[in-house]
Amino acid sequence: MYLVLLGAPGAGKGTQADILCKQFNLLHLASGDLFREALSKGTDLGKQAKVYMEKGLLVPDDITIKLIQEKINGLEKGQGVLLDGFPRTLEQAKALDKNLKAQNKQVDRTALIDVSQEELLRRLSGRWICRQCQAPYHLQSAPPKITGRCDKCSGELYQRADDTVETVKKRLEVYSAQTSPLIDYYRQAGKLIEVKGEGEPQAVGKKLITALKAG
Ligand code: AMP
After folding, report:
1. 14 lines ligand 1 (CB under 6 A)
2. 156 forms bridges with which residues in the sheet?
3. CATH architecture for residues 2-115+179-214
4. 214 Cα: distance to centroid of ligand 1 (angstroms)
5. I need a surface site. Which of 22, 23, 29, 81 has the fewest CB within 10 A?
6. 87 CB contacts (<8 Å, ≥6 apart)?
7. Is the pTM of the predicted complex or chain greater than 0.85?
8. Has 36 been annotated as catalytic?
9. Tens of pLDDT along 5-60?
């Protein structure tokens, strides 16, 4: 199965991706994580992506499509995949369809996690993440037991450079202009399921699983 997870920055895609990957035995492919990894290693790709990421802008399609295609093409046959953060433009979605079609595969389902603007802003500006295991925390609503340390693995918590108020606003604008058209693209293809993403992560996860099993 190829499952695309759609939702604005802060909608909870990373958390829900973990739940869904366990439930459906999928590999989690997160374009943002791949870019951050390249950036921390200082590769050419990382250097190219840095300028855009810092401003809350999308990395150009040609660079992004190549990165994801290489990942997908290198997977074992039959490996199910959850795509998180990709595609983010119509061009990326069409390139993904073309690449999968060439392998007799397709995007099977798309799950949209829908969260209000106010809630997204609140979530992103208080978000801290574990450097080691990527577990997310929130200063107000989900603080760690020990300040600055991950409850799960004791890793160091950090705030993403693009989680500042200004950059967050830009990322939300970019989502609405460039990524939200994908909702209609997948709806028209009959592949979209939608759930409200406010509330406890486990409850949102249950709704997603139920909707995906039903559809
Ligand atoms: P994310 O962790 O998904 O919020 O991604 C962090 C940043 O990486 C984004 O703000 C973009 O600069 C870049 N990025 C991630 N995925 C994509 C994509 N599919 N297309 C273009 N840029 C992306």
Report:
1. no
2. 149
3. 3-Layer(aba) Sandwich (3.40)
4. 30
5. 22
6. 4, 93, 95, 96, 182
7. yes
8. no
9. 999 999 999 999 999 999 999 999 999 999 999 999 999 999 999 999 999 999 99
